[in-house]
Every structure is written in structure tokens, then in C-alpha cells.
Amino acid sequence: MLQTVSPRQIFRILIVSALGIYSLPCPTRRWMFLQKVDDMATNPRILAFAGSTRTDSYNKKLVQIAAAGARTAGAEVTYVDLRDLPMPLFDEDLETSHGLPPAARQFKDLLLAHQGLLIASPEYNSSIAAVLKNAIDWASRPTAGEPPLAGFTNKAAVIMSASPGALGGLRGLVHLRSILGNIKVLVLPDQIAVPKAHEAFNPDGSLKDAKQQASIEQLGQKLTEILVKLNA
After folding, report:
1. Left if phi > 0, otherwise alpha if psi is -120 to 50, otherwise beta: which for 196?
2. Is this prediction's pTM over 0.85?
3. pLDDT value at position 231?
4. Measured between alpha carbons, how far is 123 from 168 in angstroms, rounded to an integer?
């Protein structure tokens, strides 16, 4: 009985055969390379998350709207809740004695496995939330066998925010854009800050304003389109 082979499988077989990947002595390096091959053969892979742990977070709702737009455009989107990845405050002594905490390692692995980032960031005292900065700090730490900033280098990102305030968290996005740019993330100029967030959402998590809903979805679509072009 003949078995159908997908274009993705053919691509993988050709690359692996041509380069002799299975001759690499380190299983981890083989796995990482095959992940890169799979990335080239599939739709863009995007990691979506919010810089908040609150259950009913406005920014969790916001980033999932953008994620839906990315999926509509053909991306494979993984949503992660930072509440499910509890990390201790960054402590270099802890890192020296125990290495990356398990949740930080898991978060970094998620970053490594995706090409793009959708990030919704609440504004705390005119800057970003501690949980988001802490996650970025842990994931940026060097690991043996990995190049510097491996989880961030050459990623493309779109950022957004929602806040009860009149500016919608805009001041925090200024800091987030600066942080990501300095760790080699390409942050697209498109961004949206949703003001009066406590009044903006329907019970199902969608935005009451249809135009605003469409604009957030378009952020995900735009990131997907850019990733397709960058990886063509």
C-alpha cells in the first residue's frame, strides 16, 4: 500500500540527507537543528503571552485576540500563561548554584521553538510589569552550547497593551520596545494601546468596539505576513 509523503516530510528528508545531520554527536544539537528545519518547512510559529498573572487580565484577553488574527493568517500560535510558569526573582547566586529554574528553562525553550512573539503588556507605574521583566531576564541568560540571547535573536515581535487609564498602557510599551530591541528582537512599528480597558471587553473576551477588535486581529495578521517574508 502506497503512503502519501507530505511536502514538509520531503523537505526534511532532503535537508537531513544532504547535510548528514544524524552524524552530529550531540542529540540536543540534532534536535535543535531539526526544529529549525521544521520551522522552514511549515507555517510561521508564534508565541503569544501577556505580562500579567491575573486570571481576568485585560492583556491576556487582548493578546488572544491578536493570536486569533495570526491563526486566521496561517500561523501556528502557542499561547502561554506566565501564571503557569512561576519563576523566582532573578538571582545570579541562584543561577550559579542551580542553573536556570525549570519554569525559566521551559519559557526559554518555548522562545527557541517559535519565530515570532505577540506580547501584551500591562503598564505598572509607567513601565512594564515585574513578572514580564523577570521572565525576559531569566530567558536572556546564557546557557552552555547556545549562542548569546538565543531565545530572542532574530525574533520578530508585535506589542500591545490594555489599561483602565486614558493612555491604554502606552508608556509601558515604550520601555518594552526598548528592552526587546536591545536583546536583538525586531519589534514591528505597529502597536495598539487600548484605554478604559475595564469597559472595553465583552464577557467572551472580545472587544465591544468592532473596529478595535479588527485592529488587534490585524496585529497578529501583520506579524504572520512579516514572518512569511522573512523566512521566504
Report:
1. left
2. no
3. 85
4. 8
